Every structure is written in structure tokens, then in C-alpha cells.
Amino acid sequence: MRPKVLLAITPHPDDESLMFGGTLAKYGQDEDVKTNLITVTRGQKGSLGPRYLGVTRKKLGEKREQELRCAAKILKIDHLYILDYQDGEVPAVEENIAVASLIRLIRKINPQVVITFGPDGGYGHPDHIAVCHWVTEAVRFIKGVEKLYYYAIKKDFATSFIKYFGKIPLNGELLEIAIHDAAYIDATLDCRQFTEQKFKAIHCHQTQEFDTKRFDLLRRLNVKSMISDDNYHLAFARGNFPTPETDLFAGI
Ligand SMILES: [Zn+2]
């Protein structure tokens, strides 16, 4: 029988823990599931905490790679793949070439389930949006992929985030976190058991202390859909999978 294989595809180091951490920890401890993570950049342009100002982009990329490896270990990810694209420049990459090389890698990993950000990028980050397009295009060509899910941000998470932190500045623009209503959500995973592990992984990302502090506050505020469950939209499926689901491998 084909083993169960989960693949998360994220643009930057920290996305895997901040957004997908509960899910990756949950399946990471499941002996029947192999978990894989593709991180498309090394996060060379990440927003630096005050202690790291003056660090070069190259050095930051190296540091963030170490942080990503730390998080992957805590989340018990079986295989981590780090691609060589540049943070902030993902939308400028020739899409056909990127998709072709992603198809080769996904075929090698051979997952039934793929998870990534939706077309809104979670908060409009252009790298997140571009990666969503690449992945959505790629999986259509790979017969073994049975389901593609987009991460969904529930109202309690989004409204708390907006209330406490407002919009997210990026390259002179102000981006807003997405809000996904109940009708968009097809799968909800109970990740309560893995909250501690998720936050340990988040704290590997020392250079991203703005984000870790924000998520620590949301945890103290007990924002349920951020700390204890992960929600997904079923964007693409080969076959008929009744929703709502509580397991991404339901029906596989
Ligand atoms: Zn990101």
C-alpha cells in the first residue's frame, strides 16, 4: 500500500510554524504519515528584530535556514527541502520554469495531500500569492496528488490580529490579513495537543521576534483558531471527498 505522505509548501522560513505548525506537528507524530516541507526561499528579506539590524541579507538567509531546520526538527518533519529563490522576488520568477521544477520535486516526494497558502496569500504577501499559483498549477499535472488544501484564517484569528496589530507593512504598502468565512472552510483539524510544540517551533525563529511576540500575545488571548485548530479550504481534489473533514487524509 502507498504510504500516506503530506507535503507543505511555504514561501519563507517561519510560515511553516506560524500557520501550519499545528498540522505539521499532528501528522509528524503519526507513524502512518510521512511529512515533507518545501520552503521556497531562505527568507533573506525578513523583517528583522532590533538585535539583528545591520546583518547582511546573505547572513540573514543562513541564520533563517538554521532557524527553519530547528523548527522542522521540533515539528518532526521527515524531509525538508529548501529552494534557492530569493525572498521578495518570487513573483518575478518565470512561472513556467518554476512550475516545471516544482512538478519534478513533488513527483519525487509523491504526496497524496498538499497544503499551502490560498490565492490571497493569507495577508496579500506577493511571494505567498505566487507560490499558491505555482503549487495550484503544478498539482494538476501530478496524478498522485489527491487533494490540495489552502490554509484558511478564521474570523476570531483575523479580527484579533487586526484589532491588536492593524495592517502589515510591506514594501511601503499596508497589507491586511484575510478573513475566511465558515463556508470557505472544508477541514478543521483539532491541534490542541500540539500547541506547545507549535510554539516551540515558532520560537526557533529568533530573528522574527516581531512575529513571535504577536503570536505569543494571541495565544495569551486564547485565540482558538490560531492556537488549537487549523482550518483549510479544499481547493482541488481528484475524486469525491465529502466535507467538512477533520482529517486531511479522510477518504484516502
Ligand atoms: Zn511568508
Write the layout of secondary structure elements.
Elements: E1 4-10, H1 15-18, H2 21-28, E2 33-41, H3 57-74, E3 79-85, H4 95-109, E4 113-116, H5 126-139, E5 147-152, H6 155-165, E6 168-170, E7 173-175, E8 187-190, H7 195-202, H8 209-220, H9 224-227, E9 229-237
Parallel strand pairs: 1-2, 1-4, 2-3, 4-5
Antiparallel strand pairs: 5-9, 6-7, 8-9
The structure holds zinc ion.
Residues 11-12, 15, 125, 128 line the site of zinc ion.
Structural write-up:
The structure is a single chain. This protein has about 250 residues and is α/β, with parallel strands linked by helices. The protein has one domain (about 5-235): Rossmann fold, CATH 3.40.50.10320. It has helices spanning about 15-20, 20-30, 55-75, 95-110, 125-140, 155-165, 195-200, 210-220, 225, and strands spanning about 5-10, 35-40, 80-85, 115, 145-150, 170, 175, 185-190, 230-235. A 7-stranded mixed beta sheet has the order 3-2-1-4-5-9-8, sandwiched between helices. The radius of gyration is 17 Å and the shape is globular. Bound molecules: zinc ion (ZN). Zinc ion binds next to loops.
Instruction: Give the domain tally.
Output: 1
Helix content: 25-40%
List the helices and strands in order.
Answer: EHHEHEHEHEHEEEHHHE
Q: CATH-wise, what's the superfamily?
A: LmbE-like
As for the CATH topology, it is: Rossmann fold
Shape: globular
Structural class: alpha/beta
